[in-house]
Design a protein that fits this description.
Layout: H1 3-9, H2 37-40, H3 42-72, E1 78-81, E2 85-88, H4 89-115, H5 133-150, H6 156-171, E3 199-201, E4 218-223, H7 233-240, E5 242-246, H8 255-260, E6 265-269, E7 281-283, E8 288-290, E9 297-299, E10 305-308, E11 317-318, E12 320-322, E13 328-330
Antiparallel strand pairs: 1-2, 3-4, 4-5, 5-6, 6-11, 7-8, 8-9, 9-10, 12-13
Helix pairs in contact: 3-4, 3-6, 4-6
């Protein structure tokens, strides 16, 4: 096609009038808006409102049924349900009730939008990404108008039912956290140490006497009765691991620490109070122990307090004494919860 042909094609005649441009894809425009029954009949609108409210309330009932299934149905119960066959009753109940709750909320929202919210077509021309102030104001006005036309302010029964469903249904997920594991109760605040339990050397599995602990040495111990062959040995030692040092009594700064020891022998938790790493580095001149994970440093001559690093609590101390047979033994459990801090801890 030549340049002249293209110019001629741009000015094709319309209705026999030469020189007038023709748009072969003219915009037909939007068809005339057809009102819904609910727009012109308040009784129909009331009926739709009741239907939406009913679905929201069904969602609330299903959420309570979800919780009831979790609490009342034994986890081991198996039932036959056609066509799936034998299934776990609790899983089937939880899945069914939660699915019904979410379905009811979805159906209610869709029915509300299709029958009660405004459905007037609002054409808008394309505009730059950065909207001018007038357009921004128009958006806010449209939002307020949409909120008004949705009836959420005027139809209180519908609004309250929706808020109830959206509040209650998510609560059903809370009970799922119960399946994350057994409740710790007070297990985090107690260890295998108890009054009268002897301190057993980790190296030779023999009970310790005061003369076995030399000044400047670091010795690791476990509670009497704990064996490496035990199935829960690692779990027990994760809290009960003990380190023992001997410091000249006149070098101990904290009076309580000295009173809880025996002739300068002090026993502290081996578990760092930052993230629970085992402490194993001891500097005998300064009486400092260092956690190799994040360099938290504790002063064993001053109650195990933190002098450097991210740890937030001093090392718990174990009160010890010498029993009638001359062995070092515990006079109870640690004075504080062992390991990293947690928000439930009572000390």
């Amino acid at each position: 096609m030549t340049h002249q042909d293209r110019n001629a094609a741009d000015h094709l005649p319309e209705s026999g009038k030469p020189g007038k441009a023709v748009d072969p894809f003219a915009d037909p425009g939007l068809p005339a808006h057809e009102p819904r029954r609910q727009d012109i009949d308040e009784l129909a609108a009331r009926h739709s409102e009741r239907v939406v409210t009913m679905f929201f309330l069904l969602a609330v009932v299903a959420a309570f049924a979800f919780i009831a299934c979790y609490v009342l149905i034994p986890k081991s119960k198996v039932v036959f349900i056609f066509p799936w066959g034998h299934v776990m009753a609790q899983n089937f109940g939880l899945g069914g009730t939660l699915g019904i709750a979410l379905l009811c909320i979805g159906v209610a929202a869709i029915h509300w939008a299709r029958t009660l919210m405004s459905d007037v077509e609002l054409p808008a021309e394309r505009h730059p990404i950065e909207a001018p102030p007038a357009v921004r104001q128009q958006v806010f006005d449209d939002f307020r108008q949409g909120a008004y036309e949705s009836g959420i302010g005027r139809r209180k029964m519908l609004r309250n039912a929706m808020l109830g469903a959206l509040t209650i249904v998510p609560l059903s997920a809370i009970v799922l956290f119960r399946d994350l594991g057994p409740l710790p109760e007070r297990k985090l605040e107690s260890t295998a140490w108890a009054n009268g339990k002897r301190l057993i050397n980790m190296n030779n599995d023999q009970p310790l006497r005061p003369e076995d602990i030399a000044v400047g040495s670091l010795t690791f111990a476990k509670p009497e009765g704990v064996q490496e062959s035990d199935a829960n040995f690692q779990e027990v030692m994760a809290k009960a691991a003990l380190m023992i040092v001997r410091i000249m009594p006149n070098n101990i700064k904290d009076k309580q620490s000295a009173d809880w020891g025996h002739q300068g022998i002090l026993a502290y938790s081996k578990i760092c109070t930052h993230v629970g790493c085992p402490i194993s580095l001891y500097e005998q001149q300064t009486h400092h122990v260092l956690c190799p994970c994040h360099q938290s440093t504790f002063d064993l001559a001053d109650g195990g307090r933190v002098i450097f690093g991210p740890a937030g609590h001093p090392l718990p101390q174990l009160r010890i004494a010498v029993n009638g047979q001359g062995y070092l033994s515990a006079l109870g459990d640690f004075d504080k919860p062992v390991g990293p801090g947690y928000w439930e801890r009572s000390a």
